[in-house]
UniProtKB/TrEMBL annotation:
Pfam families found in the cross-reference section: AAA_14
Matching SUPFAM superfamilies: P-loop containing nucleoside triphosphate hydrolases (SSF52540)
InterPro entries: AAA_14, P-loop_NTPase
Protein name, UniProt field: AAA family ATPase
Top-rank taxon: Bacteria
Start and end residues of each AAA domain: 37-159
Amino acid sequence: MEYSDIQPLLNIYHRNLASTNLKFKRYLYKQINWDARLLGIKGARGVGKTTLLLQRIKENFTNIDDVFYVSLDNLWFQNHRAEDLVEFLYTHGVHYIFFDEVHKYPNWTLFIKNLYDSYPDLNIVYTGSAMLAIDNSKVDLSRRQSLYSLKGLSFREYLEYEGIATLHPLSLEELLKEHVRYAMNAISGIKVLKYFEKYLDAGYYPYYKTSGKDYPARIGEVTQLVIDSDIAAIEESITYATKQKIKKLLMVIAENIPLEPNIRQLSASLESTRDQTLKMLYWLEKAALLNLLTDKAKDYKHLVGPKKIYLENTNLMKALGCRISKGTQRETFFANQVGAVTSLSMPKQGDFLANNKYLFEVGGAQKTFDQIANLPDSYLAIDNVEVGNGNRIPLWLFGCLY
């Protein structure tokens, strides 16, 4: 192999790096232990994984040719082996390699393990689908690597990305105790509710900025790709017929959210078995398209029927043509943002139980405690208010958790 062989990859790497902006960085950037010899970043399509890698390279390497970035879904790999590329780069002084779309490479876990074992001073960073299940793969990478998950933009990040306000993230416990003071500081100088409405429609995936009016259509296209390509790449046994059933299942849910599913009826409509329907539901959740609410801790080895199903985020609601009710939009936002930082389950009373401790009811400004009266650690997440009081917390504040 010669430099002329990898010139197409070098051109793409240099071009992408040149266009990378360092002004705004996702929340995960500072949390990652970049010194780890092997680290992975998984997340849904379009949440900014590629930008994260390129920002790291641009900010931390004086000589960009000491490091190499490549996407493993590039057509170049149709007649070249990634193993040969790594050997060439390593013998020419490259000790940091950033792989994008790793799940597109055949037997990728074995490929990464062999690199880790064969090149003791090679630093490897990779990104992949939100569906990556490292612990359950045939090759054990869990002992060798640090693995991170990147979510879509929080409302807090959206405000910073738009240049509107720079707020610090809160833990859930901090939010419950300090929400009044935090909200008072946040709203000085900005009309937070106006921007919150915009975020709910278009603000979760960073590409909303470049997509403009085509943003809903772009989400639809990405959703198709996730099912046709990402889910199929991870779950290799999926047939064309199964892909079609997954799409039908997603649209049935989108038309009926929030869905309290009857798994038997769902299975019959899909001409599928109960077990297969549950698998498809959990695939869609792992692919960051659905949010499944159960009444007990989730176990992906022993699938239980969800009690309620939401789309993963509010931007998906518009893109998939849902009949959007304000109540459903509020609950979808809460489940998305709070579920990103702690466990959520469906309680006997109220809408959500967070961290198996905090009980929440979500609603509009007139919402009362009637449904969760006298229950310990109970709170209202209230829409259309800037500042709350006591256990009444503005809904938008739950978008400041990361």
